[in-house]
Amino acid sequence: MFARSCSRLVASKTAVPLTSYLARTARPYSSASSTYEHILTETPRPGVGLITLNRPKALNALSSPLFKELNDALSKYDEDKDIGAIIITGSEKAFAAGADIKEMAPLTFAQAYNNNFIAPWSHLANAIRTPVIAAVSGYALGGGCELALMCDILYCSTNANFGQPEIKLGTIPGAGGSQRLTRAVGKSKAMELILTGDMFSGKQAGEWGVAAKVVDGGKEQLLEEALKTAEKIAGYSRVAVVAGKEVVNKSQELALREGVEYERRMFHGLFGSQDQKIGMTAFAEKKKPEWSNE
Ligand code: CAA
Asked: Would residue 166 show up in a list of annotated catalytic residues for this protein?
């Protein structure tokens, strides 16, 4: 039940993000937020877990404590059978302005290397099987851009400002930006962006294929689009959705022939699922499928 998923994540109420918006659209499911200090969690729609980065004074700079909470919330939603899609968002002004520069500034090589600094950020890309949508308004810089690129689907507002400005700090991207941005926009453009530190707009993110959708409006409109998509995904068979995510991700790592074979094996495997029978029988009988998620 959603109540169960909410109560697992929610202990006491703190600030309610998007209060008026959620009050209007999501009262039955919304239950803000949480034992967390730097993020807010809620379930505003059936099957949808919403995580809001919430360090407004630092423009949601991604400190280690924030990331620990984010990973914890992601894991809890991922384990929750009632959650079929997750959204990560920030504020109107900032999705996230990067890794926390003040935390990083004094680190020595030995501290960074021995503690494998930034490695826990890969939890989202490496371990979370539930689809994750980034809803980006405002700044998504450095690690903020990288976090958005790690998500499975990226929606942004026209006002979004993406960039990898690490070069201006005497360093380089450290959370996959040089790899994921290059795959998204191609080598020459990625090289230009990473070596100049220049920002690019939400509109450009849409034109270059970084964003799946660019929403002309504020945070409310952006979140509404993300919620609609998340709810739609959460309404499908979980087993098929997880398989769909897995095969698309494989396309980033495998050669075409291996990727196509991998997809075919997964496709074959789904004939062993109950939901393949449920889905195809429902189509033939002109009924709405009632997924078993098995
Ligand atoms: N880390 C820590 N604090 C940050 C921060 C960051 N990445 N970004 C912003 N802040 C803090 C500012 O220090 C400021 O705090 P104080 O009020 O205590 O001074 C507060 O957030 C508001 O910021 P500004 O006053 O600078 O706001 P602005 O509207 O004038 O400018 C901005 C906004 C252009 C985003 C500017 O804050 C900025 O350039 N931020 C840094 C962006 C950046 O370089 N990100 C990359 C970080 S490195 C990285 O991410 C490495 C990696 O690959 C993992």
From this structure: yes
Per-residue pLDDT of 220-262, as tens digits, reads 999 999 999 999 999 999 999 999 999 999 999 999 999 999 9
For ligand 1, whether the C-beta of 139 sits within 6 Å is yes
Sorting pLDDT into bands at 50, 70 and 90, what band is 34?
low
Distance from Cα 121 to the centre of ligand 1, integer Å: 19
**CATH fit for domain 3-234, picks 3.90.870.10, 3.90.226.10, 3.40.50.2000, 3.40.50.300:** 3.90.226.10
How do the domains of the chain map onto residue ranges? 3-234, 238-284
Opening angle at CA 140, ends 135 and 146, nearest 5: 90
Q: What band does 133 get if pLDDT is binned at 50, 70 and 90? A: very high
Domain 238-284, what fold? Lyase 2-enoyl-coa Hydratase; Chain  A, domain 2 (1.10.12)
Question: CA-to-CA distance for 83 and 275, rounded, in angstroms?
Answer: 17
Q: Indicate whether residue 275 lines ligand 1 (CB < 6 A).
A: no
The answer to whether residues 69 and 34 touch, using CB atoms and an 8 Å cutoff, is no
Protein residue whose Cα sits closest to atom 12 of ligand 1: 58
Neighbours of 257 (CB within 10 A): 8
Same CATH fold, 238-284 and 3-234?
no
Alpha carbon nearest to ligand 1 atom 22, residue: 58
Task: From the candidates 97, 99, 135, 140, give the one annotated as an active-site residue.
Answer: 99
Task: Tell me if residue 99 is catalytic.
Answer: yes
pLDDT digits (tens, 9 = 90+) for 166-216: 999 999 999 999 999 999 999 999 999 999 999 999 999 999 999 999 999
Q: What SS3 state is found at 249?
A: helix
Closest ligand 1 atom to Cα of 172: 53
**Does residue 197 carry a catalytic annotation?**
no
Instruction: Indicate if 42 belongs to the active site.
Output: no
Between CA 107 and CA 105 the distance in angstroms is 6
